[in-house]
Amino acid sequence: MAAGSPASWLRGRSRRGAYPLRLAGRERNRSVPSKHQSQAVQAQAPSRGQAAGHQAGAGETRCRSQRRSMMKRKLHRIQYLRGLAAVLVLLTHVTITLNERLQYRFADNVFLSGYMGVDLFFVISGFIICYTHYSDFGVRERLGSYYVRRFTRIYPVYWLVLIPVIAFNFAVPSYGDGFERELSEIVQSWFLIPESHQPILRVAWTLWHELLFYVLFGMLFIRNRNPKLLVGAALGWGALSAGSMFIQDRGFWLWSEYLFSPHNLEFLAGCGIAVLLRRDKLSARAAYWALGLGIVLFFASWANEYWLHESIPRALAWGIPSFLLVAAASAWPDSARSSPNRLFAYLGDASYSIYLVHLLAIHLLYQVFNRLNLFAQLGNLTMVTACAAGALIGGCLFYSLIEAPIMKRLKHRIAAQKKLKLGSVNPAAEG
């Protein structure tokens, strides 16, 4: 047959189209899976979805862990300030107590202004409570657990220090001012109810203000359709507290001096720092400026009390430097490689125990050293320094041996009760 015949043309056409037709068939076979392939793909689909879910969950977990790590680093720096505050108060009480008994000016009374550690404590308390509970605003269900945690943080350890003090007042009637053995005074000191004079455990007056702040802060957990009302109430409370700084006699009503104390401004200042930090309004540059200005104002207030003796309201003289130092510590730039200083972090953790027991330890050590005639033999400077160091060590031992184990046990018990309560509320959890 001729090459140009129709038959040869058809054969050539079929040969030229054979490969494309076979390729198209293969592509169709690939694009249209068989029954077994469809079942395999369907079997793999859930596992792929689960893998994506696991990846998303892992990413969320990493974000949460990173946030917790960043929060811990910030709170570590705040813990350093808390330890510093406790040591400053201790040095003040060493200076005052042994100056009265020995007529000796320890370090030329340079630590008399260390009482500002209390003002620093109040700013720190406001910051930590607001920073850690910022996401709880308006969540009424968390109010009960908040109060339980706050009260268990204050009372059990405080009672363990108060009990031997009460017993000692009965065993040695000549000790104290006499009111310490009255039942009404014991009850008021036991529950930290404010009174016209210092409580039986002298340093516990600061806990009056702590508890007031804890109670009022809990109001933020209550849902309110008009949040401006709560903001207005807080501003009004702060304004009355600020105004009381300039009233000479605030004792016309005991509770007015307590409810509208200028110390309330220091708690509010700490809350303000926490809100700014949570909203990312504090930059590293602001931290640098706050640190520099805080140090300058701190030494200015110290110099005023040491040399000039000008009357400046305490909430201004020491509250403002405390505010700036806490702001600097909270907003200081983080470093992933930085690790907390264990000693300073430990002093911060032990600050509550140090604060509660240091004055008792100073009195006890003075009595022991005086009976052994060590002040005359070794000199006042050596033994007063030994009293300060011994009181600090005593507070740390009380923390490690008593406070830390008790608080750990209480936390486990509270967590177990919470889990049990959730299980009883949600029967599905029991399955």
Give a quick precis of the structure.
Helix content is 75%, strand content 0%. Helix 2 packs across helix 13, helix 4 crosses helix 16 and helix 9 runs parallel beside helix 12.
From the structure above, extract its key features.
0% strand, globular, 75% helix, disordered C terminus, 431 residues, disordered N terminus, mainly alpha
Model regions low in confidence, pLDDT < 50 over at least 5 residues: 1-32, 427-431
Number of helices: 16
Proportion of residues in helical segments: over 70%
Indicate the overall shape.
globular
Radius of gyration: 34 Å
Distance between the termini: 86 Å
> Class by helix and strand content?
mainly alpha
Number of strands: 0
Mean pLDDT level: 84
Strand content: under 5%
Main sheet attributes: strand count, strand direction, barrel closure = none
Output the helix-strand order: HHHHHHHHHHHHHHHH
Main location: membrane
Keywords: Acyltransferase, Membrane, Transferase, Transmembrane, Transmembrane helix
Family: Belongs to the acyltransferase 3 family.
Organism: Cohnella fermenti
